[in-house]
Backbone:
């Protein structure tokens, strides 16, 4: 194994980790807000997939990556709007609606892709990168950390901004009250439905952005079912992170690293059997769940719809 | 806003002022829920500088009235006024904006948030928590009302009394004009209740109006400047400050008891059943105790004896341990101390099925949830407590024909109105479900039956039929424990009446047909007023 830690190996590992982590991070941050507010958003996988499709479509038609991201956000938002109306306004079961949205988005995007892109499989040009002068030239971490698309920095910035908002404003407290004991927020003059609606829409926007990143930056094309459970991993991260955005980042990096390790090990020409290598991400998931799963503390009113005066 | 719009949408500010309505006026308010009129044509005036006590039993409409004032419900008829202006309180925030703060019976704090966060709950999300301002105000509150709270403690770690102080502090921080305290002493120690009383007096001296809801007479007299008594949703009477000052405590309590439990028509002759009690004791309960918690009253030192052919009434305000007593006797609730004896056999550790086998039956008050499976046909419900046993099950195989025959017999004997025995029981009326359950409990060798609120929620005809049935059961020599919140029912049927309050038996009285005097004496015990020892058994 001595020859494994070459610069090429480490660099590709780190690059892969970040590429794989960003969509999970965005989804996890979104889901975290929704779960804080008491809405278990199982539809996030569908929101990501819709974002990936609409994001790719917008980028492909306009030849602008930025409009592509906007398209992704809108796709995620629209899907989240369905969830917000059905689950928050009308109080339907969040899990049933979430699964329905995910299945629906999978079918719809696969169908649209079949008619539009299945003969040509068009690709987007390689994205421009934001080089940070000086830092990009560092060995190993230079190219992997400091030569990324701006959206990567946006995701990292989101971690900091959300952490500050939760700590320094009433936002964190209002969300937690909505998720922990919505009746208490209601009688204190807060707006339970409003904050939950906003949280679900935010989740949709973040998931849509994550999906657009997956299609436009990581892959450069749209393939049906391409999210491959990234949204669900986001749900797990949000549940394990106990309300802290930084923990979502750490979790996303661990999962990202485990995913990219499979590629990196193969690039480095490891003699390890392929089966073992491909098992690694799942082993990492199990390990994390064993270590931290029991300490996950979920809001009391998670997945419970709120109706004033109901006992 | 143009005049025509104002006319069309009858908003609060456009309505004419209501003179002499105090800080809050409740004007002929009625609120109905399916099947019951919770608040019936109630008018109240809340004056600043007064503790206004709303007194009444559970189900008297107190909590509904609180819900209306807090903006959780809107009246079906009548209206509210604030400072003499007719007002709609359509949401909790409308109520808060009108200067009304409510401390609900059950804590409305978020247990995982800190005290400071709970104090600022409801503020716009983008603002920063105003820590310095709240610290300054809390220092003031500490000086004036000796309210002292650890701002950074997690709310769920504090005692119930401290949590209540958070809610009171929150009301004061909002500069409320009216503070509503709903059953505020029910979770406090006696000392905590005294402190709360003293604090209320300080608050009203500062010009606040306090609405204090309770069902305890002594507290009403001690803490209240004005007392309004609610009975079955309607206002039964009101005692103003002058009237209260002119009375001794005993006079005042007597008057309140008369308002709460007396009969308006003054009729004293309750139709009283001839006793059929026999000599032998069937059921003996000795120093029984069960675990309680924040929501459920535990039993303490309950001792009762039931003779064959006797009806022993259990009187009390709902939620004082009646259900726990019934369940402990039926074997559905673990017992922490004491023993239960049936026909000379210790059954304290016996299972539900064993108790049923020897003839001890329990008819729950929760007909739909606990008593029956709504989607199952009537026939299955009649054998629900005999699943797997012969003759309805033989070697583990269900015998539908026998079950159907049994059900048809029961339907005929207890005159159940149902299309057929295959109808799902959930489609029957409450009275008919009750008949099926009664038939089920009386089938086989029943020797004693515990009835928990057997006529609750039934119509008059079914109430009469049920009472008749209970009399017949006793006449046949079975023992009956009759738990009821309806004093008339208990006085009409029981040989003796035990009064339960706070999980303890406050006294057992012979039902000598004593009429009004007996009724008031029981009412006094139900409300937790002191009863002299010589009347205890």
Residues:
């Amino acid at each position: 194994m001595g020859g494994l830690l070459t610069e090429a190996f480490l660099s590709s590992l780190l690059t892969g980790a970040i590429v794989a982590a960003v969509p999970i991070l965005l989804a996890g941050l979104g889901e975290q807000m929704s779960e804080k507010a008491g809405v278990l958003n199982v539809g996030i996988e569908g929101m990501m997939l819709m974002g990936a499709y609409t994001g790719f479509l917008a980028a492909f038609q306009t030849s602008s990556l930025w409009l592509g991201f906007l398209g992704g956000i809108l796709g995620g938002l629209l899907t989240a709007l369905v969830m917000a109306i059905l689950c928050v306004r009308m109080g339907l079961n969040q899990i049933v609606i979430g699964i329905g949205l995910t299945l629906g988005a999978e079918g719809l995007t696969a169908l649209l892709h079949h008619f539009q892109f299945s003969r040509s499989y068009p690709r987007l040009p390689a994205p421009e990168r934001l080089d940070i002068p000086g830092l990009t030239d560092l060995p190993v971490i230079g190219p992997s950390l400091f030569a990324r698309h701006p959206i990567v920095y946006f995701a990292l910035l989101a971690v900091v901004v959300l952490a500050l908002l939760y700590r320094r404003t009433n936002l964190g407290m209002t969300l937690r009250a909505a998720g922990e004991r919505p009746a208490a927020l209601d009688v204190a003059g807060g707006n339970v439905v409003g904050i939950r609606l906003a949280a679900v829409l935010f989740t949709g926007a973040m998931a849509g952005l994550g999906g657009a990143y997956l299609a436009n930056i990581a892959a450069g094309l749209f393939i049906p079912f391409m999210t491959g459970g990234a949204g669900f991993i986001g749900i797990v991260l949000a549940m394990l992170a106990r309300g802290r955005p930084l923990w979502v980042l750490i979790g996303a990096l661990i999962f990202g690293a485990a995913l990219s390790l499979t590629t990196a090990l193969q690039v480095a020409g490891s003699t390890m059997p392929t089966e073992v290598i491909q098992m690694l991400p799942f082993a990492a998931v199990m390990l994390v769940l064993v270590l931290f799963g029991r300490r996950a503390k979920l809001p009391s009113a998670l997945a419970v719809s709120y109706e004033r005066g109901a006992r | 806003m143009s005049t025509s719009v104002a006319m069309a949408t009858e908003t609060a500010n456009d309505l004419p002022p209501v003179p002499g309505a105090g800080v809050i006026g409740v004007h002929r308010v009625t609120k109905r829920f399916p099947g019951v009129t919770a608040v019936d044509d109630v008018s109240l005036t809340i004056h600043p500088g007064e503790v206004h006590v709303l007194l009444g039993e559970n189900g008297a409409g107190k909590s509904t009235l609180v819900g209306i004032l807090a903006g959780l419900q809107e009246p079906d008829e009548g209206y509210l006024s604030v400072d003499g202006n007719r007002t709609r309180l359509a949401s909790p925030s409308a109520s808060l904006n009108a200067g009304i703060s409510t401390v609900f019976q059950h804590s409305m704090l978020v247990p995982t948030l800190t005290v400071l966060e709970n104090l600022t709950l409801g503020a716009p999300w983008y603002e920063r928590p105003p820590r310095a301002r709240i610290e300054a105000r809390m220092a003031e509150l500490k000086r004036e009302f000796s309210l002292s709270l650890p701002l950074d403690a997690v709310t769920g770690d504090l005692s119930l009394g401290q949590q209540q102080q958070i809610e009171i502090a929150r009301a004061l921080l909002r500069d409320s004009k009216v503070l509503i305290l709903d059953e505020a002493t029910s979770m406090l120690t006696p000392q905590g209740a005294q402190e709360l009383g003293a604090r209320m007096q300080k608050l009203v001296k500062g010009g606040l109006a306090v609405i204090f809801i309770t069902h305890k007479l002594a507290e009403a007299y001690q803490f209240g400047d004005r007392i309004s008594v609610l009975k079955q949703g309607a206002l039964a009477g009101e005692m103003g400050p002058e009237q209260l000052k002119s009375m001794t405590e005993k006079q005042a309590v007597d008057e309140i008891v008369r308002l709460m439990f007396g009969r308006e028509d003054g009729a004293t002759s309750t139709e009283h059943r001839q006793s059929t009690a026999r000599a032998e004791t069937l059921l003996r309960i000795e120093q029984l105790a069960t675990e309680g918690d924040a929501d459920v009253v535990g039993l303490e030192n309950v001792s009762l004896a039931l003779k064959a052919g006797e009806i022993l009434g259990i009187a009390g305000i709902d939620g004082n341990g009646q259900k726990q007593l019934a369940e402990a006797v039926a074997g559905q609730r673990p017992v922490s101390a004491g023993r239960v004896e049936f026909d000379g056999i210790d059954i304290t550790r016996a299972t539900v099925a064993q108790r049923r086998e020897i003839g001890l039956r329990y008819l729950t008050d929760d007909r739909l949830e606990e008593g029956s499976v709504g989607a199952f046909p009537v026939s299955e419900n009649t054998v629900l407590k005999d699943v797997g046993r012969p003759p309805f099950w033989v070697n583990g195989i269900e015998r539908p024909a026998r079950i159907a025959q049994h059900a048809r017999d029961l339907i005929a004997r207890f005159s159940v109105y149902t299309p057929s025995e295959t109808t799902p029981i959930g489609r029957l009326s409450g009275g008919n479900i009750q008949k099926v359950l009664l038939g089920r409990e009386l089938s086989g060798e029943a020797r004693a039956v515990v009835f928990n609120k057997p006529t609750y929620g039934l119509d008059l005809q079914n109430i009469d039929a049920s009472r008749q049935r209970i009399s017949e059961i006793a006449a046949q020599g079975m023992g009956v424990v009759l738990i009821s919140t309806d004093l008339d029912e208990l006085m009409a049927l029981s040989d003796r009446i035990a009064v339960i309050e706070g999980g303890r038996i406050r006294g057992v009285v012979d039902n000598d047909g004593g009429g009004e005097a007996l009724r008031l004496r029981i009412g006094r015990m139900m409300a937790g007023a002191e009863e002299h020892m010589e009347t205890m058994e």
Remarks:
- The interface with chain B takes residues 168-171, 173-177, 180-181, 183-191, 195, 308-309 of chain A (CB under 8 Å).
- Residues 17 and 257 of chain A are 4 Å apart (CA to CA).
- Residues 2-117+142-295 of chain A form a domain with the ABC transporter involved in vitamin B12 uptake, BtuC fold (CATH 1.10.3470).
- The longest strand of chain A covers residues 130-131.
